[in-house]
Amino acid sequence: MTELKKTALYDLHRSLGAKAIPFAGYEMPVNYPLGIMKEHLYCRKSAGLFDVSHMGQLVISSNTHSMKFIASELEKLLPIDVLGLSEDRQRYGFLPNKEGGIIDDLMISNRGDHYFVVINALRKEIDFKYLRENISREIDVDLIKTRALIAIQGPQSEKILSNLIGELSSLKYLDVNNFSYKGEILWVSRSGYTGQDGFEISLPNSLCEVFCKNILDQDGIEPIGLGARDTLRLECGLCLYGQDLNETITPIEAGLKWAIQKVRRTGGEREGGFVGQEKILNQIEEQPYFKREAFFPDGRAPLRSGTKLFSDDSGKNEIGVITSGGYSPSLERPISMGYLNHNKFNVDEPIFGEVRNKFFSVTLTKLPFVPTNFKRN
Amino acid sequence: MKFTEEHEWLESDGDMVKVGITEYAAEQLGDIVFIELPDVGTSVTKGQEIVVIESVKAASDILAPLDGEITDINNAIVDDPSMVNNDPTGEAWFFKMSLKNQGELDGLMSEDEYKKYIE
Mind listing the domains of chain A with CATH numbers? Predict the structure, then answer.
């Protein structure tokens, strides 16, 4: 067994009493003594600090070419509007493969002289290699290892963070800016993975522990582990790569059409021209029959990732699968999302999930389970 | 009280034994949100999966500690699974069972032995 990697906050996690699990090659906190349920509710009500340093941070830049050139190169891979992304703005995107499946989903920021991209922990080597092989050699792609990544999420996050780095009210949802702390530069975006207002902060590894200790010294914030991170994102219907997204599911099937701006769609000014365009643009027009959906299990048993779905309670007609599911601490009931093959059933038919050879009925619902709350204005 | 390596406790209750999970197990499982108990009258053999327990994190099984028959179940923990986190060795017992061989109870760990076991 290869040894697990440690983030810059490893010692802090231990001192806080975290329960550690291996995740994406790192030893990561799944929860702290508060436990997943209370951590989740605390973040929704006040604020939470997350270590997400296992995620990949890419800097894409060029000494010889303009940002416009880099954006054009990226648009050959990404079906999103990169050229139209203003300086110090961030946007969601994904890297499709030739068949329209998703190599990874990501957040990309225009930082004036480079693009900053946050990618999934499990996919960082794959993404890095793919980008390196598929964009001009005159563009530098760096997977940076000298910086940690943390998130501060929840309604009190602005107040808490501003105590350390100053006024943040002008930073709106998906704005990005630099802030300084103890002589070092923090890259701060107003975004996150909880469906709530909050911030993600890239900062030097050497500064991370002292910064986080000072954050946790503030009132109204608790450390939150990966367990609650998962329940928080699920309540807001956010996809987890490797469960809800993979190389065989297209962004349209995943319900991510909104992330493909009109300018890249059929009839747009820069229509197509990206990897996987044929499948993806066709599906925008024709609506896929295989689609991500939201479910409320009718009983109390959580229906988790991998649960097969049937249109009958005897397991004859398989119509889909749960890709993420669990207990919602906010709603105090189980919630699930997954994929349904609409060719194989009618929406007015019942749906059953099979767990431990038993069939549990579920009801189709709409995402998100819990409304999002971003600071847009 | 006697203890198994599967982190169950057993307590004599007349001709029956009352069975639950230890504080250590409850803490390891985290916030419990769903419990499925066996039917009264079910014959069980040692090591058989008889209870499903789901925490926020994951599903796990509880195994029959010894051979016997289920004689009573605690529906209160089905209605409010968080009881198991709050009072695992008291109010939140899981089921009662009659043992096929009463003597087998003595072969299980004592409290001191269990404490050493989980260290």
Answer: 1-239 (3.30.1360.120), 257-365 (2.40.30.110)
